[in-house]
Write a structure and sequence with these properties.
Strand order of the largest sheet: 9-10-6-5-12-13
Radius of gyration: 37 Å
Number of helices: 13
Largest sheet: 6 strands, mixed
Strand content: 15-25%
Order of helices and strands: EEEEHHEEHEEEHEEEEEHHHHHHHHH
Shape: elongated
Structural class: alpha+beta
Number of domains: 3
Distance between the termini: 111 Å
Length: about 525
Amino acid sequence: MTSLRERDGVAEPGGPDQPPLKPGVPTARTVRGGVELRRSAEALAKAEGPHYTRNRFVPVSIVTGPLLAALSLLLWPARPAAHDIPNDVTVQAFVKPEGRTLRVLVRVPLIAMRDMDYPKPGPGTNSGLLDLARAESTLRDAATLWVADDVNVYEDDVKLPYPRVADVRAALPSDRSFASYEEALAHVTGDRLPASTEFLWNQGLLDVLFEYPIQSERSRFAIEPKLARLGLRTITVVRFMPPGGAVRAFEFQGDPGVVRLDPRWHQAALQFVRLGFVHILDGIDHLLFLFCLVIPFRRARPLVAVVTSFTVAHSITLLASAYNLAPDARWFPPLIETLIATSIVYMALENIITGLPSAAGAAGGRPQLERRWLITFGFGLVHGFGFSFALKQTLQFAGSHLLTSLLSFNIGVELGQLLVLLLFVPGLSMLFRFVVAERTGTIILSALVTHTAWHWMTERFDVLRRFRFEWPTVDAVFWVGVMRWAMIAVAALGLYWLMFGVLKSGRPARDPASSQTSS
């Protein structure tokens, strides 16, 4: 039996009884009928004639693969706009308990609810139009798949059952019925748009009324919206309307987790303790300022005095800002950020120049320690405004417990500072004991902090100088603000006198001679 096949009069060796091809002779490999055949280049040259070249035997997949891929990319149709994820989506919602029913009114842009088969009018019309006469079932499906499935509601920490879609309406972009709960409810339960309305679905709005069964309208409610998938940046605005109470507005981005619409005092306190703790650990500028305070003062008494001064000062301005006593001008936040960076630069340079001793209780260290108290107190007032900027967006979750939430946030900040001190103080002590001399290490560390804070200061000053400062109008409102700030200044001076006047005078002075004897 032969394993040779004739093709154009040329024998193709490939069987076991054929001698192997000479080493180094190029071959072309093909598969025919499940049998791999090899042909020598010389045999193919004889068969193909003078037009044969070795470059001809490039595998087809290497040549045609990239060409086909490029052609497919060029000829592939663009993705339809219906599947594009919108950049910014705003969801509006009202939550109102009434008797044994919790009503939730929601408005969502239709373009955010993708992959829905919206009915179109007949042929010859704009393909972007929505056939309002046949859109009822599709709109209900969109409300279920894109809203109800991604919103959980809780009554007294118990998850409520799946809501009933009481009604849906398609709304034009110019509709303003969601300005109030009463207008929104009347719109959703009222007349529909005429079927002849030219309604572009990718510009329209979907209004939905969900109804949840509840035990009592006096219960404590919470909501967990998971609507981030509606857009690249989703903002949800919720207005809760408790029975007999004022409207509480919430605004959050993405998926905020469980939001308690009417928290108890201990729930608000725990939440704000956590927020304060996380904020101080995330605020690298506050940590660097604290680090500069710790470098020269690592013994208990001077350390407690300096940190207490900082704590009391930032508590004053934090509370003042929370009660809207701080300036609301646009230049004020960048000014505070610039001053915070300046405070770090100053503290670091002071550590380098003056070389405050860590044993600040010595005879020569007491005046320096008292001076550091005063400077820390002044800069603490500035840092308190910085804390208030981070707190401003989260005070909406305090409910009716504003003061409790503020104090809890402050406690969280202090707990975070305590954790940082527990890490900084032993670390610096070990560094100065085993690695580098204290004075040298203080200069090196403070120089690194100065370098970083200097860049922050210049960058923030560049932002600040873009704002135009305008002198306030001298009127009754102006003088009311002046009186408020005068009261705050008096309170700050009173606290400072209490801390550094009364407490210092009540502490017995140390005898230098006895100090030298004990040493």
